[in-house]
Design a protein that fits this description.
The complex is a heterotrimer of chains A (about 240), B (about 650) and C (about 300). With about 240 residues, chain A is an alpha/beta fold. Chain A contains 10 helices and 10 strands. Chain A is globular, with a radius of gyration of 17 Å. The chains are: A alpha/beta (about 240), B alpha/beta (about 650), C mainly alpha (about 300).
């Protein structure tokens, strides 16, 4: 039942969603392939976070279709998606502050039938800082460590698709590389990583594929090499284009 | 009339007064006060204190003054003392507490009071209570002996109370209190001290409760702490929920339904077994179920709050010409204008609706709000200056010269939990200019707006406006200086009509004092007529005149934005901060919005606009400031900024970051 | 000095009952966001259930069990039948609070209906006080304190070491994040209410036998004192609730040495008002809730 290699783990078709008023995103179609980092970038107000929340089941799309490994997941509430192979790492409020680091990880493994402890060990290898802080309440971690913990928590369920919303937000620039290193390592394990990010250029140096969202619509997509030097991208952000 | 019926009627009438008191606190101001009955009790006791003869209690008791004062003195004393007590409790409890904690705090005060009065017997003889309070007119013909006289007197008080409260409700004061209930942030943004308003409402409610208490004491001629428990307050709440929150007649109906109707019906339920309290118990279970049922099926009650009617009192002779959008300060001046013809109003209305395009999706989904959209009559035209629009031009000669008010910010810093949202930012806005403020997410733009408008106070730095330092001033004080702002999502007062929203946005100039509402309502109404005319003109400009009597909450998102503009105009501001004005607005309406913003500036108002939609901003602003990571990194025209590598880097991010 | 110690001793008993009544409220508020105004009625229901059992079989353990089960049922049903249906409409939190007030009216008066308003004597066979250190405590006192300690330890173990307990704390931290992690938040909330009722019912039983008489207002009379302890200790922190109960309990009993005993509760109410105004997050937390880090601009 596992998909052929290179078949996208995540397919989104014509997705439209909002918060009850006019739709924030309209007609978005994207794909995320295994062992690849797919980036969603775009200027403010583009709807990047909204897109992620709609895929993650946090908000209900008003139109469109979402499939994880061929199984339709449109309209499912967030907690059911974990067992379908999707994990979501929100931008804010992404850890349980009063639970310890290891307890946060255990929560990530909530839907696992077995092997929670083993999986935690594997993740400690990927995120060594977490082992040192294992017993500390997550609320005492720094912003960067929290984002690490949030990502590790997402990986606890062995997801096929990992959605990460602005992992470097609010972080000092020197920590951004560390975060990206981890994301690259996650990619190496075969997970399809979908990342929303603000720092467009930096993201494009790591991503394997990127979509540029502007005002709720998918305006451009392509390989980072194409997009990095494209004048059109610059124009989308600060105007001055056609 | 039999004594029994007189008794029922008296109970209903007196408790209606108590319900009216709760209506002021809960219905007008949204204060979930559980201590109400304690204030009623205090009123009763004070009435006793003043009207009982000396030597009422076993000595020593200096608390019963033994004045044997006449009825009215006792009543007035009750009102005054409960007013003072309300001031004391309210001053403490109304400081920013969430609703449920506020309720609990008032309950705690009430229980302390009950305990002290019950336990400290020298005060009012504890749980024994007081007896022998005089009932006025009880011995006089024709109906004295069976209480009929007193019933008539109580009815007089109820009617007086009702009329006075209605007068205040319809006055600017009443409107201001209701605005606090609807959205206190918007009230503060339009110059109101929310805390003081809530306190005034709390005290007013307390005074009425004290009146009710005095009458209760006079009616029963006895009073003890067993008669006043939190349960009594909940019965009054039940009366209000069922009768209609915010509706005075509903309050009376609800009181008779609950306190008389349900009370009597359950009295006739046969006693269950040996249980002497069975009918009491059934009654209260019924009340609990009724409250639940009302909240589920009809939360507004039998008679919902009445929609304010917009009526003009006759004003002076008509002026033949219409003025341009009156942005310049017009305080105290009656702007004489001819009313736009009904056809023009309808045409405008259709225009706006057409501009909104296929905004059917904008409407709320199935929440029962009335659709205010008429059928579209014409396709949206892309650049549609309305045919009857006055050309945006320099202000008319008789308007005062717009003062060139600028804004100066230096070294502003604000941190939230260790993260510096604004980090030593400095900017200056030239008076009379239309300046843009842009920057990527996390740059600190919203925080900057909040700091300037007083919704946050800076950790350090200065903000100078109109020659004054405003850093750290409260939001309502800053808006009174003429510095106003819009919000990312428009904040209107949803339960109030569009016209009321406009009236609330006009400069306050002392109109909202309680005494004015009470004593000079006629003069206020005349002065307000001028405001209403001005409001109509402003609403017409934005195409919302046809909706002036709709609750503002029923408007679509785009219409709420337009209303926000009209309200800002009404406030006659000197400087306006616009926070993403075109967010959530469809492209065709955006054109209209751009016009309105240009009009604003042409009218002499300085504008600082935060926007993400750079095309929109570029069409309006000659001068743009860029913020990133909490500081202002560049300024100039958009083309200059585009050529600025720092700005491009801020937006697109940097690849090679110094790794420490 | 020995009077003070006696006061502290009584304080410990009061604190034990209070702790048993406060911890469940704290748990409930951690998932419901509003205080349950009918919390006192859960205690009352438990006390009357134990009384009923007592009329047939005199067995303190069965009585305690009956109290817990009835309390659990009342709390569970209150949430499932009343609060969750309303909550789906996303009303203002105040509306949910008002509903708990309506529930308290209904439950209290149903008890009044079935048991009359007369005080029911609920006494265990008297036992002589024992001298334990500087304290003078009866058998019932000792049972109460022991029971409180056992239940506290059990709650601690449950929250700290079981999967449910951790999930409960997760939901209390953030219902949304818990959903995203795969936890069925609504189910956890329901079980939390059940647990709340079980412990509160048992607390009601102890309250009943300790005071010796039952009236339908038994629990409600205690309500604000329980709130005081819960808010002082910090909502959602069961350990804080225990600390808050000890502070309030001991403060009340010690104050009874200096002011007339009937004013004990004024002390608790005064502390409640002060805490709500000055430290609404409890004395162990920061004065003002730290805003969400990194306000978006």
């Amino acid at each position: 039942m596992s998909p052929m290699p290179d078949e996208p783990y995540l397919t989104v078709k014509d997705l439209t969603a909002g918060y009850g008023g006019p739709p924030i995103i309209e007609g978005i179609s994207i794909e995320a392939r295994p062992g690849a980092i797919t980036a969603i970038v775009g200027p403010n107000g583009a709807g990047k976070s909204t897109l992620m929340k709609a895929i993650a089941g946090v908000i209900r799309p008003s139109a469109g279709e979402i499939k994880v490994c061929g199984n339709a997941t449109t309209g499912l509430t967030a907690n059911k998606l974990v067992s379908r192979g999707m994990a979501y790492v929100p931008q804010v409020a992404n850890v349980f502050p009063s639970l310890s680091v290891v307890e946060n990880l255990e929560m990530g493994g909530y839907t696992r039938k077995s092997g929670v402890k083993a999986r935690i060990e594997e993740l400690y290898v990927l995120f060594p800082d977490l082992r040192a802080a294992a017993r500390r309440p997550a609320g005492t971690l720094s912003g960067g460590q929290r984002n690490m913990l949030a990502m590790a928590r997402g990986l606890m369920s062995d997801p096929k698709v990992l959605l990460v919303d602005e992992p470097t937000a609010g972080m000092a620039p020197k920590f951004e590389s560390a975060v990206w290193e981890h994301i690259v390592q996650v990619r190496e394990t075969g997970v399809a990583v979908l990342v929303v990010e603000q720092n467009t250029r930096r993201t494009l140096t790591y991503a394997d594929w990127a979509y540029v969202l502007v005002l709720g619509k998918n305006r451009l997509s392509g390989s980072p090499a194409q997009l990095l030097n494209d004048e059109e991208v610059v124009a989308l952000y600060i105007g001055g284009g056609a | 009339m039999s004594q029994y019926l007189i008794g029922l009627a008296s109970t209903g009438v007196i408790l209606s007064i108590v319900t009216l008191a709760l209506n002021v606190r809960w219905g007008w101001a949204g204060e979930f006060d559980i201590a109400l009955f304690a204030f009623v009790a205090v009123g009763a006791y004070i009435y006793a204190v003043f009207t009982l003869p000396p030597n009422t209690l076993p000595a020593p008791s200096g608390y019963i003054l033994g004045l044997k004062a006449p009825f009215l003195v006792g009543v007035i004393a009750a009102i005054v003392v409960t007013g003072l007590l309300s001031a004391a409790v309210g001053a403490v409890a109304l400081r920013k507490l969430r609703d449920d904690y506020f309720g609990i705090t008032t309950l705690a005060f009430a229980l302390i009071l009950a305990l002290v009065i019950g336990q400290y017997t020298p005060l009012f003889d504890g749980y024994e209570g007081l007896f022998g309070m005089p009932q006025p007119l009880s011995t006089a013909p024709p109906f004295g002996l069976n209480g009929g006289n007193f019933l008539a007197l109580s009815v007089v008080f109820l009617v007086l109370c009702f009329l006075v409260l209605q007068r205040l409700y319809n006055s600017p004061f009443g409107r201001a209190v209701r605005s606090v209930r609807e959205d206190d942030t918007a009230s503060a943004a339009f110059g109101r001290n929310v805390y003081v308003l809530k306190l005034k409402a709390y005290i007013l409610g307390g005074c009425v409760a004290g009146l009710g208490g005095a009458l209760l004491a006079a009616y029963i001629t006895a009073f003890n702490p067993y008669g006043w428990t939190p349960q009594e307050t909940f019965l009054i709440y039940a009366s209000i929920f069922i009768g209609g929150t915010g509706n005075a007649i509903g309050a009376v109906i609800g009181t008779f339904f609950v306190e008389v109707g349900v009370q009597e019906v359950t009295r006739y339920v046969p006693q269950l077994g040996n249980n002497a309290s069975s009918s009491d118990a059934i009654r209260l279970v019924l009340i609990g179920l009724l409250i639940t049922a009302v909240l589920w099926w009809r939360p507004q009650g039998i008679l919902p709050e009445r929609r304010a009617r917009d009526r003009l009192v006759a004003v002076g002779g008509p002026a033949p010409r219409r003025r341009a959008l009156a942005w310049a300060p017009q305080r105290g001046r009656a702007a004489q204008q001819a009313e736009p013809s009904p056809q023009a109003v309808a045409a405008r209305q259709v225009q706006v609706e057409a501009l909104e395009g296929s905004a059917a999706a904008e409407r709320a989904q199935g929440d029962g709000t009335v659709s205010v959209r008429a059928v579209q009559l014409s396709a949206p035209t892309p650049s549609a200056p309305t045919p009857s629009a006055p050309t945006p031009s320099a202000p008319t000669p008789s308007a005062p010269t717009p003062s060139v008010i600028g804004l100066e910010v230096t070294g502003l810093t604000k941190a939230f939990g260790g993260v510096k949202a604004v980090n030593g930012a400095s900017l200056s806005v030239a008076g009379g200019s239309l300046t843009g403020l842009i920057g990527p997410n996390g740059a600190g733009k919203s925080t900057m707006i909040n700091l300037i408008s007083g919704f946050e106070s800076p950790d350090s730095g200065t903000i100078t406006f109109a020659g004054q330092s405003i850093a750290g001033k409260s939001a309502h004080a800053i808006s009174r200086l003429g510095l106003m702002r819009s919000f990312q999502t428009p904040r209107e007062w949803p339960g109030l009509t569009v016209m009321e929203n406009m009236l609330l946005s006009m400069p306050i100039a002392g109109r909202e004092a309680i005494w004015r509402g009470l004593i000079t309502p006629g003069r206020l109404r005349a002065a307000e007529s001028a405001d209403r005319i001005r409001a109509r003109a402003l609403l017409d400009e934005v195409g919302l005149l046809g909706l002036k009597d709709e609750p503002a909450g029923n408007l679509s998102g785009g219409q709420k934005r337009l209303l926000e503009f009209a309200r800002l105009a009404a406030a006659s501001p000197r400087l306006v901060l616009l926070d993403e004005p075109q967010a959530g607005v469809n492209p065709v309406l955006r054109q209209r919005m751009a016009e309105l913003i240009r009009n604003m500036v042409n009218g002499g108002v300085t504008v600082l606009m935060v926007e993400h939609n750079l095309a929109f901003l570029e069409s309006l602003c000659d001068h743009v400031i860029v913020m990133a990571l909490g500081t202002c990194i560049a300024e100039g025209s958009m083309s200059e900024l585009r050529a600025n590598q720092d700005v491009v880097d801020a937006y697109l991010g940097q690849v090679n970051v110094a790794d420490a | 000095m020995s009077n003070l110690m006696l006061g502290v001793g009584f304080g410990l008993v009061t604190a034990s009952i209070l702790a048993l009544a406060t911890v469940p409220l704290s748990l409930q508020m951690s998932v419901a966001r509003i205080p349950n105004f009918a919390h006192g009625e859960i205690l009352t229901a438990g006390a009357y259930a134990a009384y009923v059992v007592n009329q047939h079989i005199s067995n303190i353990y069965l009585e305690a069990l009956a109290a817990a089960l009835v309390g659990g049922a009342v709390a569970y049903l209150m949430n499932v039948l009343l609060l969750q249906p309303f909550a789906r409409r996303r009303p203002k939190l105040l509306i949910l609070f008002i509903l708990t007030i309506a529930a308290s009216l209904i439950i209290q008066n149903l008890i009044l209906l079935f048991f009359t308003g007369n005080s029911l004597a609920y006494r265990l066979p008297p036992s002589p006080p024992h001298k334990i250190g500087p304290f003078l405590l009866t058998g019932l006192n000792l049972f109460t304190i022991a029971a409180a300690i056992v239940v506290m330890i059990a709650v601690h173990v449950l929250l700290k070491y079981t999967k449910f307990g951790k999930a409960q704390r997760a939901v209390a931290d953030s219902k949304d994040l818990a959903q995203v992690t795969g936890i069925n938040s609504e189910r956890i909330v329901q079980v939390t209410w059940l647990l709340d009722g079980l412990i509160a019912g048992f607390a009601g039983f102890l309250l009943g036998v300790s005071s010796g008489t039952l009236t339908p207002t038994l629990g409600q009379g205690y309500l604000l004192v329980i709130f005081a302890a819960a808010i002082l200790g910090g909502i959602g922190k069961p350990y804080g609730a225990m600390a808050g109960a000890i502070v309030i309990g001991v403060a009340m009993e010690i104050s009874a040495l200096y002011i007339p005993a009937s004013y004990k509760e004024v002390v608790a109410f005064g502390l409640l008002i002060l805490t709500l105004l000055l430290r609404p997050n409890g004395i162990f937390a920061a004065p003002r809730a730290a805003g969400a880090a990194g306000a978006t601009a």
